[in-house]
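RECORD TYPE: inverse folding
INPUT: structure tokens
STRUCTURE:
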């Protein structure tokens, strides 16, 4: 991969500032900011075919805030929130064919409350409640 940075490394030699990196085929691999070597702020990461792989926010290298993740074919894989790198809040996961796989809530990375699971054909498989 080839890198392009607008802001130089910091005094410790860590990546700092806005960076873009490209695959050898010229497709964008990622774009985002580093602060003292850690991903920080909004990031977009791409598959080598040019499809978006994920987008979301980092705080000091940890996922924090709303995220979306995508399959290689461009279909949405999941959408949800992170707090300090742990799933937290409303979450939806999808099969690669676009059908909903499950939905529910997380608290500090653990399933919590009412959840629904679906087969890849869209039919309800199970409902459950986590405490």
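DESIGNED SEQUENCE:
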């Amino acid at each position: 991969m080839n890198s392009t940075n607008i802001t130089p490394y910091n005094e410790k030699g860590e990546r700092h500032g806005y960076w873009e990196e490209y695959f050898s085929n010229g497709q964008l691999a990622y774009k985002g900011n580093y602060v003292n070597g850690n991903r920080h702020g909004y990031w977009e990461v791409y598959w080598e075919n040019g499809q978006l792989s994920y987008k979301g926010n980092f705080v000091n290298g940890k996922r924090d805030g709303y995220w979306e993740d995508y399959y290689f074919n461009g279909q949405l894989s999941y959408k949800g929130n992170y707090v300090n790198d742990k799933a937290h809040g409303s979450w939806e996961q999808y099969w690669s064919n676009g059908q909903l796989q499950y939905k529910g809530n997380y608290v500090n990375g653990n399933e919590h409350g009412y959840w629904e699971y679906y087969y890849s054909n869209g039919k309800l498989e199970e409902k459950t409640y986590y405490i």
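NOTES: The CA atoms of residues 88 and 106 lie 5 Å apart.
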